[in-house]
Each structure stands twice: as C-alpha cells, then as structure tokens.
UniProtKB/TrEMBL annotation:
GO cellular component, one term: membrane
Taxonomic lineage from the root: Eukaryota, Viridiplantae, Streptophyta, Embryophyta, Tracheophyta
Source organism (scientific name): Nyssa sinensis
InterPro entries cross-referenced by the UniProt entry: Cyt_P450, Cyt_P450_E_grp-I, Cyt_P450_sf
Protein name: Uncharacterized protein
Highest taxon of the lineage: Eukaryota
Recorded family membership: Belongs to the cytochrome P450 family.
Region (Disordered): 192-218
Length: 218
C-alpha cells in the first residue's frame, strides 16, 4: 500500500509468498511469518530454506556410489535445518502448552473458542482416549508439511491467476472496476468484501462458472 502511494515498484511474487505464508501460519500457529523479529523471521527463513532444498539438484540421487559421500553438502544442510526447525517448533509448542494450562478447561472445550491447527493437534496429543494417536514428532512433521507445501502451492496459484488477468485486459478491467466499487481506493481488500463481490456463490444462485477454455503450461 505504501509503495503504491509512493509510485514505487513492487515485487509481486515476493509479496504473494509473504501473503500466503501469513495466512497459513496464522491458521496453524497464530503467528505471522512475514514479520522481522523472533519466531516470525526464523519460521519464514526455515520455510524458504526447506522449499529451496527440495528443488535443488542432488547428484547423489542419480549416481548411487555418491550417496554416502555428500559431495554437495546436502546432509549437513538438512541436519542444520532440522535442528533449527525442531528447536523453533519445540519452543512454539511448549509456549502453547503453558498457555493452555493457564486457560480454564471450560474455555478450552467451548465450541466458540477459536482454535488454530496446533491447538487441534495438541488436543489429540493430550487425549489418551483418542482413536488417533499422535506423538510430538508427528505434530512437528505435520506443521512442516503444511507450512512448506501450502505456502508454495497457494502462492503459485495466485500468481498464475494474476498472469491470466494480465493476459485478458477486458477481464482485468472488470476486476479493477469491481474492486474500486466494493473496496475503494484508500484501503486494501478484506475478507468481509468477499460477500459483496459479484463472483460470490450467493450471487450466482447455484450456477457453477465454467473453467477457462484454454490452458497454459508452466
């Protein structure tokens, strides 16, 4: 918003990743990963490093005799990321457990009480009668999977949608006009604006929009 007002260039891809990272981490851990301090910065860095190492070429995957040599240092990097990630998640989980202990049981079981993904996992972990058995390592692994996979795939989908809009000026103009009408020019889009949008399901009376007639390979 500030850059738009100042007429400065914006790295859209980078901002989309921050957005999706914030949404996912807020739902899962009730923290914003695009912050600049403490847990937020460390979580963002770890997600970035995990995503990057997944996509890097590893010669040991193709030459069997090199698997035990760790020529590119992947083993050391993976171990370092694991230790840092485990320490971060352990701190977050421990803090949440202490917070849950301070909260009365009646509040914790209230249906109206807002819970994030970590709360739900800890409920299962602490319930000895639950049909699903989770360990602390299960909780950490699930959080890692969701943070890394959901951030990257969601950001890619949004970026492709924006690219499609740019390639279709008529549709882009219609979208811009609707945002100006519903949101205005002096604030960013909020979740409550969705219900006022013409693409909201309630405005179509059950009609399902058709998928795009053309497709584009990445």
């Amino acid at each position: 918003m500030k850059k738009a007002e100042a007429g400065e260039a914006v790295n859209v891809s980078e901002e989309i990743v921050k957005l999706t990272n914030n949404v996912i981490s807020q739902m899962m851990l009730s923290i914003r990963c695009s912050g600049t301090k403490g847990e937020a910065k460390e979580a963002r860095n770890l997600v970035h490093e995990v995503t990057r190492i997944f996509g890097e070429f590893n010669v040991s995957d193709f030459i069997l005799m090199c698997r035990s040599l760790d020529l590119q240092g992947f083993g050391k990097r993976i171990e370092d990321i694991h230790e840092r990630y485990d320490g971060l998640l352990e701190k977050i989980i421990t803090n949440r457990e202490e917070l849950r202990k301070k909260k009365p049981e009646a509040e914790r079981t209230c249906e109206d009480d807002m819970k994030d993904f970590l709360d739900i996992l800890l409920d299962i972990l602490e319930d000895n009668n639950s049909d699903m058995k989770l360990t602390r390592d299960h909780v950490k692994a699930l959080v890692l999977d969701f943070l890394t996979a959901a951030t990257d795939s969601s950001a890619t989908a949004i970026e492709w949608a924006l690219a499609e809009l740019i390639n279709n000026p008529t549709v882009l103009k219609k979208a811009q006009e609707e945002i100006d009408e519903v949101v205005g020019e002096h604030r960013i889009v909020e979740e409550s604006d969705w219900s006022k949008s013409s693409i909201h399901p309630n405005h179509h009376k059950g009609n399902t929009p058709s998928p795009p007639s053309d497709s584009h390979d990445p």
